[in-house]
UniProtKB/TrEMBL annotation, chains A, B:
Keywords: Aminopeptidase, Calcium, Disulfide bond, Glycoprotein, Hydrolase, Metal-binding, Metalloprotease, Protease, Zinc
Gene Ontology CC entries for this record: apical plasma membrane
UniProt-recorded name of the protein: Aminopeptidase NAALADL1
Sequence ranges assigned to domain Transferrin receptor-like dimerisation in this UniProt record: 602-711
Cofactor(s) this protein cannot do without: Zn(2+)
Organism per entry: Salmo trutta (Brown trout)
Length: 715, 715
């Protein structure tokens, strides 16, 4: 298929690097040198193909399904294996609020007129390609079918060029399309919209390919016309009935009517074949050029209704909601390798386990990589040959697709959302998907890049992941020149959300992707559809599973650097570079042109300068490190991201406290709260909005100064 | 005067204890044994009398006054002294919102009828005893004069027996009296009250003594009839215009109209001579017996108006507000002794510097004790003879009387309200007043008691502070039997508030007090009046300043145990005992009889049991401690109080996050949020109130489980 480029992980030549660190900084007590890791993670004995084909993708395993439970059992068995398991493994049960299809009885019906055949066509066609008979129609709360035509039912044409910038928080980006600034899903209701149909336009996902006969799966990796991309429309994360509390049996639950963050109106994803039939019949004025997609017709605004010449003209709508909400148990599977020297410092490696349907890539590619990493590390631990300096916690999260529930409940269960345990977790790694990208806190960039130099790209004995990566996806850094592009974890696209945004734990997301110069597809086309199967993955995504092995090596390398190195492999100057970039962008945008009070860009520049100085001083301290200072400096490195938390920064945005990485409407690489507040103030001109902009500026300055303080010398 | 009993501090025999700890646990690198401390703190060379008489109480030093600035300069000079100063000392400036008297122009006038002579009589008489001519009339924002008589102006008779239980947050307890449950100050407005006069009844403060001629100061320690006890009525803390942000020049400030937490109506303290004239003239039904005070008349409800036979009958009211609000600079004076082994762990020793008028006791007794402690420690540091294991930060806070402003801004300035620096502060000690009591987190009880055994009570060569204390003020502990009574830091009475309630830093408040069996006075009678002068303090509070010296020795002992001991001297089993007491009280109160869902007391009992087990295991771990575990266990001890923080627990209560120590209307030793919610639910019977009770229960369980987790083994 398409040429692939490794964007995230890296190898296993931890040995040499660790040796250098140790030789320079002191004796690493209680930790053996893991020179076996690369070898084992390279071997053909890799579990990955077996996991993927035999265990993890045979059945659909949406949250709480029999397939999910089967995977739980399988992982527990692996992690409790006396020869290759971990020190401990257990399941943690939560009772969470989910939504399931009720195929027989629509529980809410609003009949406007009878015209209700479209959805079932779509679903039936999609099923024809599925490898399993279980019902893949897990839909979000309140998701429902609502054909367009009624002027107040929104059928939103795509806005491929701007959708990237909307960053709607937990909502899976692109699950729904709507022009930037135009209300969609949860925002549509106040505009009088009573239902939303969402679809994925072939322009965005299929490079315009639409044919069922030879252009799409099973003939290529492109999404078939009947493919339905699901996604959560929940703007909060975690269990909806127990905000900020772990969803135990006895936990207080808010009344269902008090749930916020989900659309108050029915929302239903459909395939593009149905969207095509509807959009090309829409009447009204032509939509702007950036709304136009791959269909061979002009996308019109659609209001009021269909074209006078359309068969649908004067059609009305019947809305049937075929889902019901239920409290269900969902499990996290947890495993631990205990640290030898600093067992109270935890490196968390997580991945979700539930999928929308079969989820061969999302999430089972990540699950199989995690199982492979634990198999190799676990065996060395069981044989007494190795034990990391710090503890490693492995988490297989449940119910991610419903709104990052498993990982969020985990952060809440022992008051992890308070200060007590937070400090123990230096980093959170997510590896949700073997074909994505690498993102992380800027301080984590260097460890990813270092590791990527030590792993070979799939199918090559000479080209490193780093070399391949820099060729296909790079950026220019003031400090390093051209380097591979490591993204940022803005928004809340996956399980890292509770860790980075709420807890301020330095996080990264490692995965593999394809050559983006050859396709406009924002992700592999079967993403979140019923076509994400073992067949699809093994034929079109990763034949031979060599990329999976590369990701396992890379994730293993990063993980062991984090868990084993005497000094945490974080680089604060890289964080300073990012803040300077944000500052420059803010200045360009004249974000700082406040009407009142006058000279307030100065304190922000001072704060960033102060941060840079502190980072430089800390870098220098690292170079002349005395052994006794190690834990202290590790604390500084570990706490850096936490210094950017402010619980009061975004009072209306559930769970967002990180003032650098919160998602932003501005969609630019600059300070999100400041940019949004400024944009709003400039647009309204209201004094109260300028005041909020000033408040955001004060919060930002205080956070950056605090971060600089964190990096500074003790007293 | 009255026999005094030491309630808080303790001595300086740190040597022996430190030796035991060190011998048992390992070598304490870089820290010398401070066997000189008790000697020096015992010497007659003590600065205390000199500080008090010569420097600190010559002039009034309310916040930002010339007297305050003079004290700043004096402290900086001391702390920067090349022979006896600290490693560093500096001033930190904040621009804060304060209220000052405007003697010439009333800025708000509501004339109802002319009858405005009372206040000025009171003030003039009070001034006659003052040793200085500066204007002592610093009043709170919106405080004003409002004689009673109008049915809607509240003149609240005292409720001495219940006032103790009201715990009105930052409001200085007893500054205003009102029956429990009856609206006062900030709560009065919704009931139609348009102004409040508050006074201190002789029953509460003077053991009933009222005579100006021979019963009160200058003939005894009792408050003269003209004495006016001031106090803040602000229910929030910190600068009012910059909530949760440090009040720097460029910081965003909320509009003044958005200030919350202060009474919307005029509130004026008056002396009891004026209250007497008014109360005994009030008509209406007799008030309940617990409202009656020391005046030789029946306290009537007063509504409507005065007795028909009174000269005041049919009088109306003129309200003149003689104050103005201003942004003013206020300074914290900071000093540091750098730690030798763990410089990134901070013990904070703080005391406020501003007073209502002269403040010989509150706060200058604490300031002089702090100066004495720093003189002795600073000299040893300058001579190169000693350096503590951890860093010590000394803070002289400004503008405490206006609402704990200096200490709160300090916690905000470098994002201390976030997670980054929090963890570095094991403990905060406040020593605001040499004649108060000892309170603290339960885990800090043991270090106070240990120290108290090593210091002699004033004027004795054989009786320890501990022996004296247990005789006059004790309690029965299930674990220890009868022991001296160490209180809890519930509410927000002084500068510990931002540390314990917002940051969850284990805190204590150490001070001296008198024999409570001999007086009903809840505090020394000149408290917060213009009579709190050097003359008063040296004649009636601490002749010869021997108690001051004892406090210096005690605070020094505690401080050095915290800063120098290898293992933090905190005892988690004592925390477990407190939680068990709270649980028992909650069960007695049938706090747990929820209508729905049924069996939810079980999880709370489990949580407390779990905490106890973890505490016991940690105690055991301490007894077999290996040196490498020291820092890890210290982290657990340090973070224990932080585990009880929940930012969502009390959304309507500014700055309160600690679910065990938050103030409570229930006024009982039990879980505050649960008790208040239950009381309310039982009273209203509303389903929504029962739901809130359940929510509080879930928060509590999660916090206690999280605390148990903090004490548990690493992984």
């Amino acid at each position: 298929m398409l040429k692939k480029v490794l964007l995230g992980s890296l190898g296993a030549v931890l040995v040499l690097t660790a040796g250098i660190l140790l030789g320079h900084f002191g004796i690493q007590r209680g930790s053996t040198t893991p020179d076996w890791v690369m070898d084992h993670l390279s071997h053909d004995r890799s579990l990955v193909p077996m996991c993927l084909s035999r265990e993890l993708t045979k059945v659909p395993h949406m949250a709480t399904s029999p397939g999910d439970e089967k995977t739980v059992q399988y992982m527990l068995k692996r992690w409790q294996d006396p020869d290759t398991g971990l020190d401990q493994a257990w399941r943690e049960e939560y009772k969470v609020y989910l939504s399931f299809p009720d195929p027989n009885t629509p529980n809410k019906v609003t009949v406007v007129s009878p015209s209700d055949a479209v959805l079932y066509t779509a679903r039936e066609k999609e099923k024809a390609y599925s490898s399993d008979q279980e019902d893949p129609e897990v839909v979000q709360p309140y998701a429902a079918y609502a054909p367009a035509g009624h002027p107040k039912v929104g059928l939103y044409p795509p806005t491929h060029r701007q959708a990237d910038q909307e960053d709607p928080g937990v909502v899976q980006p692109y699950a729904a399309y709507a022009p930037a600034g135009h209300p969609k899903a949860i925002n549509a209701a106040p505009y009088g919209v009573i239902g939303v149909l969402v679809y994925t336009d072939p322009w965005d996902i299929n490079d315009g390919k639409m044919s069922d006969n030879n252009e799409t799966y099973p003939y290529s990796w492109y999404m078939p016309p009947s493919g339905v991309e699901r996604g959560s429309f929940n703007t909060h994360y975690g269990d909806m009935l127990t905000p900020y509390l772990a969803a135990k049996d006895d936990t207080y639950r808010i009344p269902e009517k008090n749930i916020t963050g989900i659309p108050p109106i029915p929302t239903q994803p459909i395939g593009f074949e149905d969207a095509y039939a509807l959009i090309c019949e829409l009447g009204g004025e032509p939509a702007p050029s950036e709304w136009q997609g791959a269909f061979n017709c002009t996308y019109n605004f659609g209001g009021p209704g269909f074209k006078p010449t359309s068969n649908f003209n004067n059609s009305d709508v019947k809305l049937d909601i075929y889902n019901r909400e239920e409290l269900k148990n969902s499990a996290n599977v947890m495993g631990v390798i205990r640290g030898s020297v600093e067992p109270d410092r935890y490196v968390i490696y997580g991945n979700h386990r539930d999928s929308w349907v079969h989820g061969a890539i999302d999430p089972s590619s990540g699950t199989s990589v995690m199982l492979e990493v634990t198999r190799v590390l676990g065996r060395m631990v069981k044989q007494g040959k190795w034990r990391p300096r710090r503890s490693i916690i492995f988490g297989s999260w449940g119910a991610e697709e419903f709104g990052l529930i498993g990982s969020t409940e985990y952060t809440e269960v022992n008051n992890l959302n308070q200060s007590n345990v937070i400090y123990k977790i230096p980093v959170y790694i997510i590896c949700s998907n073997a074909t994505l990208r690498a993102s992380g806190s800027p301080s984590a960039q260097s460890v990813i890049l270092k590791a990527s130099k030590q792993v070979k790209t799939p199918g090559s004995d000479s080209t490193s992941v780093y070399d391949n990566w820099i060729r296909y996806f790079n950026r220019t850094s003031p400090a390093y020149g051209v380097i591979p592009n490591v993204g940022f974890l803005t928004g809340a696209g996956s399980d890292y959300a509770a860790f980075i945004h709420f807890l301020g734990i330095t996080s990264m997301d490692i995965s593999y992707t394809y050559d983006r110069t050859k396709t406009r597809a924002r992700i592999y086309p079967a993403y979140h559809t019923a076509y994400d199967t073992f067949d699809y993955a093994s034929k079109f995504i990763d034949p031979g599973f060599t990329s999976h092995q590369t990701v396992a090596r890379t994730a293993g390398n990063v993980l062991m650097r984090l868990a084993d190195s005497l000094l945490l492999p974080f680089n604060c100057s890289d964080y300073a570079e990012t803040l300077e970039g944000y500052l420059n962008k803010a200045m360009e945008n004249t974000v700082l042109e406040y009407p009142v009070p006058a000279p307030i860009s100065e304190p922000l520049q001072n704060a960033v300068r102060n941060f840079r100085s502190a980072a430089t001083r800390l870098d220098h301290a690292l170079s002349i490190l005395r052994p006794l200072k190690v834990r202290r400096i590790n604390d500084q490195l570990m706490l850096l991201d936490r210094a950017f938390l402010d619980p009061g920064a975004f009072p209306d945005r559930y769970g967002f406290r990180h003032v650098i990485w919160a998602s932003s409407k501005a969609g630019q690489a600059t300070f999100p709260g400041l940019a949004d507040a400024y944009t709003r103030a400039r647009s309204t001109g209201l004094d109260s909005d300028w005041k909020e902009a000033h408040r955001q500026l004060s919060i930002l300055i205080q956070a950056i100064q605090g971060a600089a303080h964190t990096l500074g010398d003790a007293i």
